[in-house]
Amino acid sequence: MAKIIFIEPDGTERAVDAQAGTSLMEAAVNNGVDGIEADCGGVCACATCHVYVAAEWLQAAGPRTDIEEAMLDLAHEPRDSSRLSCQVRVTDALDGLIVSIPESQR
Description:
This protein has about 110 residues and is α+β, with helices and mostly antiparallel strands. It starts with a strand and ends in a 6-residue tail after the last strand. The mean pLDDT is about 95. The protein has helices at about 25-30, 60, 65-70, and strands at about 1-5, 15-20, 50-55, 80-85, 100. Strands 2-1-5-3-4 form a 5-stranded mixed β-sheet. It has one domain (about 1-100): Ubiquitin-like (UB roll).
């Protein structure tokens, strides 16, 4: 179990407990975090679960896949720290991870 801190579009911090092996998207949706639309249900076919990973957590979150890179081209205001939350799997090493949700997913 890892505690993930989501910073919602309005600046509200939401700390949620996420089961190892689930995705950040699943943790957000299951806990009612605002701003994660997850239109495709987590199959990396949209960019509506876009988040910004805090700089100190980028390496721990792991590298982007080629398909994730392509989908991020569709994301609202992508940055170097952008990830699709459906593609980041929770591990115990991510306990304390901070991600920010953009103002829009479109």
